[in-house]
Amino acid sequence: LTGQGRYVADMHVPGCLDAAFVRSKVAHGTLRSVDCAAARDVPVHRVSQGSGITLLTDGEIQEMVGLGREHGTEVCLFTGPRAGWDVGVQATTSSGRVVAGSLRGGRQLRHAVDDVTHACALGVRSVLVADLGHLAVLAALRRAGDLPPDLVLKVSISLPVANPATARVLEDLGADTLNLPVDLDVADIAEIRAATGLPLDVY
């Protein structure tokens, strides 16, 4: 290491959006407003909820979707259930954390597809996906007209896009946006940008 690397935090791209994270002080609380944006004159383009569809009631999801529409804000929910919540031990080990976002077996895959189908019926039009097979199935259902054509399939940081070949594979599978690891340097990001025209999310 020479200390000469350039990273995402060093980039200043015209028109680029910055992300701000606000964590609730209330466990399992319900988002009821987006007042901080108006107070700070900062537009909120997307609200992502990480625990996801599985842990929310229909009423909570409908309320979030309604608030998003009212404020012109995309509401993006994580799909589930995932391996990190299952009985398997690998996802709880330091070397196995990488599988926490994946779906274990056909049963979890079916539940996760049902999760997205149900959320779409409640008005959700953006989901975070962390499993390759799930992404492929959701994209196929969207192409077949079984899911809304405007459903945004966002690749989660739990399925990181660290090189241009991975970016192309995910785009080919049907991804609409890609999350990049935060420690990629500018050259790495430029290679990914050259490989795909999809929006790139950087936290």
Low-pLDDT regions: none
Could you state the order of secondary-structure elements as H and E? Answer: HEHEHEHEHEHE
Number of strands: 6
Please list the strands of the largest sheet in the order they lie side by side. Answer: 1-2-3-4
The first-to-last residue Cα distance is 23 Å
**SS field, number of helical segments:** 6
Helix fraction by DSSP (H/I, runs of at least 4): 25-40%
Structural class: alpha/beta
Judging from the principal axes of the Cα atoms, what is the shape? globular
Largest β sheet strand count, sense and barrel closure: 4 strands, parallel
| Rounded mean pLDDT score | 83
In percent, how much strand structure appears in the residues?
A: 5-15%
Query: What does the radius of gyration come to?
Result: 17 Å
In short, what is this structure?
By secondary structure, the chain is α/β, with parallel strands linked by helices.
What this model shows, in words?
The protein has helices at residues 35-40, 58-71, 105-121, 132-143, 164-173, 186-195, and strands at residues 46-49, 74-78, 126-129, 152-155, 178-180, 200-202. It starts with 34 loop residues before the first helix and ends with a strand. The mean pLDDT is 83. The protein contains 6 helices and 6 strands. The protein has a 4-stranded parallel sheet with strand order 1-2-3-4. A two-stranded parallel ribbon has the order 5-6. Helices cover 34% and strands 11% of the residues. By secondary structure, the protein is an alpha/beta fold. Strand 5 (178-180), helix 6 (186-195) and strand 6 (200-202) form a beta-alpha-beta unit.
